[in-house]
Amino acid sequence: MKRFLNRLLPKSWRSDIVTIPVIRLHGTIMAGGGQFRPSLSLASTAGPIEKAFSFEAPAVAISINSPGGSPVQSRLIFRRIRDLATEKNRKVLVFVEDVAASGGYMIAVAGDEIFADPSSIVGSIGVVSASFGFPELMKKIGIERRVHTAGQNKAVLDPFKPEKKEDIERLKALQLEVHETFIDLVKDRRGPKLKDDPDLFTGLFWTGKKGLELGLVDALGDMRSVLKTRFGPKTQLKLITAPRGLFGRFGWFGSSKGGFSAPDIAAAAASGLIDAAEERALWARFGL
């Protein structure tokens, strides 16, 4: 409505200032997220995404800095962006910061155009499952693992028991299906822009400069420079954030006692350490 009314005014009265809403999607991608290290999921990003698309603006800008994570949450975020872009008839411009890899790149292809720094990391179009195995440790410390199931496949890939060949084959078959979904999504969005390279869908990753050659990104550049060049030097960027208070973030007032609980705080701290280790491992894959 604002743009429509602006066009009705005499040219000398019209405002030439364009405001572009900006969403920052930074962090690992997983459902729920930890108490101390919130992550990206549809639940945590839906509010800012919908608010950004509610603005009367020629485009929505998205800053991405993510090493990936949950393929389901990645695709849900991708789908919400594309649905709103179609519904609101908005261009989506994606800007990669340090990394948009794996699930981070899946979200990035929601953009009509993708921009990256020459030294950004992009790609890693693949699927990975990582865990630990402790069967020898269990023997060494004299602990016996007891698992009782109804259904012969209810305890596959138990980390406290030796791996079975059939369980690994089942996991790899599942990974291939998820990988095919990822590949189809990238091909659908990037289409003829992609170069015919045998390594494109192998899980390898590249710099933004090489990603441009491969068709994974459209151009090199940073958000402010690109937006001001495209929409004018007076273009303003408006960051859209989700409201989050300190205590609401940590959930300390959610206990049944209505106050701080030592066991709750200890559990949250332990969970935070695990979340931090998992997150650190994801970033470390890209040398970050």
SSE topology sketch:
Blueprint: H1 2-8, E1 19-26, H2 42-53, E2 59-66, H3 71-88, E3 91-101, H4 103-108, E4 113-116, E5 121-123, H5 135-140, H6 165-190, E6 205-207, H7 208-214, E7 219-220, H8 223-231, E8 236-240, H9 246-250, H10 262-284
Parallel strand pairs: 1-2, 1-8, 2-3, 3-4, 3-5, 4-7
Antiparallel strand pairs: 5-6
Helix pairs in contact: 2-3
Structural description of this entry:
By secondary structure, the protein is α/β, with parallel strands linked by helices. The protein has a single domain (2-124, 179-284), classed as 2-enoyl-CoA Hydratase, Chain A, domain 1. Helix content is 41%, strand content 15%. It contains ten helices and eight strands. Strands 1, 2, 3, 4, 5, 6, 7 and 8 form an eight-stranded mixed sheet that branches. Strand 2 (59-66), helix 3 and strand 3 (91-101) form a beta-alpha-beta unit. The longest helix is centred in the middle third of the chain and has 26 residues, at 165-190. The protein is elongated and about 75 Å long. The two termini are 44 Å apart. Residues 9-13, 246-260 and 264-271 have low confidence and may be disordered.
